[in-house]
Specification:
This protein has about 325 residues and is an alpha/beta fold. Helices cover about 40% and strands about 20% of the residues. Helix 4 links the parallel strand 4 and strand 5. Helix 2 packs parallel to helix 10.
């Protein structure tokens, strides 16, 4: 993986006219920002910026640098944006900063991964345990309900919950499926193929791979292609990264469990802006009343991407 560091902020605006219309910035602070997975989130930010005439910015460490993400959160708070969206690399490390943002009057939406012990305003995303269970069902179907499998992930709370979802559905319904290894692919597209290739060499009788992060699918596909095991090793991926979809189209990957990433960003900006503009009128003064007028949780759900519908995802 590349040297740990904080990536440059990437402003995503609807053009100069929209940016000048309202002096409001909404910042999405993520981690491992170099990977293709974030394309849909960034597109959702751009669409929200165009709709609302505001500025949106996507930023964060290029790699899984959770300490760097926590430091950058404080830097963002200091510039007083209109709202913050955060994919937490380490919930415990970010909770104090999220609370400081709320205390400074900056609403915070957690996306994909939650920080439930914090004062965050809203969580938008999926049940990661359920996403893992759906992936487990898809993989079990592909391999006929039995055999040795690998699971791929990296050490973010959300992806580790998906691993537990896979394991839970296997334990409950498919006792003949054995998880022989959990591969840390680091959510790094340059490293993931090597990680899966090494795991396949160590476990040559593996018949399936379940990926739980956006880079596990293509990484596993390249490893399977390299070892001549296309078809013999079934792959269920996570998400709908543009560079992974062709492998579903050609059958190398059996299918994927995809989040509604565009919706998460688009809706988060609107919710935070409605709150800031006092358009959610549960009470006249929510702060004085000591309430949070936003929904605590917005469950955005998942989509199954297969060879039958992948063309629709490739067209967007």
């Amino acid at each position: 993986m590349a040297t740990l560091g904080v990536g440059a902020s990437l402003p995503l605006t609807a053009g100069p006219a929209a940016a000048q219309e309202r002096d409001a910035e909404f910042v999405f602070l993520s981690v491992v920002t170099q990977v293709p997975f974030w394309a849909d989130h960034r597109a959702g930010l751009e669409a929200a910026a165009a709709d609302l005439g505001v500025k949106t910015t996507f930023t964060g460490p290029l790699d899984f640098d959770t300490a760097g993400q926590a430091r950058q959160l404080d830097e963002i708070i200091a510039r007083k944006p209109a709202g913050l969206m955060i994919f937490p690399g380490d919930a415990a490390a970010l909770a104090p900063g999220i609370d400081r943002a709320i205390e400074a009057g900056i609403p915070v939406a957690c996306i994909i991964g939650d920080v439930p012990g914090s004062k965050r305003s809203v969580f938008l995303g999926i049940s990661n345990q359920d996403a893992g269970r759906i992936g487990g069902e898809m993989l079990a179907e592909a391999i006929g309900g039995k055999g040795k499998v690998l699971l791929g992930t990296f050490p973010a709370p959300s992806t580790l919950e998906r691993v537990e979802g896979y394991k839970a559905v296997f334990a409950e319904k498919y006792p003949e499926i054995e998880v022989v290894d959990v591969v840390n692919d680091k959510a790094d597209p340059s490293y993931a193929p090597t990680a899966y290739a090494q795991a396949l060499l160590a476990h040559p009788d593996v018949v399936g791979i379940g990926g739980t992060d956006g880079d596990s699918g293509k990484g596993a596909a390249l490893a399977v292609i390299e070892q001549g095991k296309v078809g013999a090793v079934k792959i269920v991926a996570m998400d709908r990264n543009p560079d992974m979809l062709p492998y579903i189209a050609d059958g190398t990957i059996h299918g994927a469990v995809a989040q509604k990433s565009w919706l998460e960003s688009y809706l988060a900006v609107h919710l935070l802006d409605w709150l800031g503009q006092s358009k959610i009128r549960i009470v006249a003064d929510p702060v004085a009343a000591g309430i949070n007028p936003l929904p605590d949780t917005v469950s955005t759900g998942v989509m199954r991407v297969t060879k039958d519908n992948v063309a629709a995802f490739m067209a967007t």
